[in-house]
């Protein structure tokens, strides 16, 4: 059973993502902003992180960059889950350390497929 950290500032999005991931057998931890995501990642050492990019306190781009700067977490794959899908925004996410992205509204089959692939590739 993998642990997935879900970071999104909207409670409804966090709840839906967590429920979908739990239905396929994963444990979930959720954060309402980038700073919480950083703190929880250091506590729970998740196998994969789903990161919204536009959040208060600390946005997903900066939170991802800070995660990737930590020796204990740099190996954890971060999947951007976002409405920010212009080429520039996606490039920013990749440069910050995201391995891929999924656009909102979320296609749950695609999301589960990407999470499963990250876990099976040994990246998570």
TrEMBL record:
InterPro entries documented for this protein: CheY-like_superfamily, Sig_transdc_resp-reg_receiver
Record key words, sorted: Phosphoprotein, Two-component regulatory system
4-aspartylphosphate modification, residue list: 52
GO biological process: phosphorelay signal transduction system
Pfam families xref list: Response_reg
Keyword match Transmembrane helix: no
Residue ranges of domain Response regulatory in the record: 3-119
Name of the molecule in the record: Response regulator receiver protein
């Amino acid at each position: 059973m993998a642990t997935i950290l879900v970071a999104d500032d909207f409670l409804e999005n966090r709840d839906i993502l967590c429920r979908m991931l739990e239905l396929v057998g994963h444990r979930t931890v959720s954060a309402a902003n980038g700073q919480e995501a950083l703190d929880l990642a250091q506590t729970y050492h998740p196998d994969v992180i789903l990161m919204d990019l536009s959040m208060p306190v600390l946005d997903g781009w900066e939170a991802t960059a800070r995660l990737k700067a930590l020796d204990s977490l740099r190996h954890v794959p971060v999947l951007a889950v976002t409405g920010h899908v212009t080429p520039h925004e996606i490039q920013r996410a990749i440069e910050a350390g995201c391995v891929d992205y999924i656009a909102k509204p979320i296609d749950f089959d695609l999301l589960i497929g990407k999470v499963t692939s990250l876990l099976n590739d040994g990246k998570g």
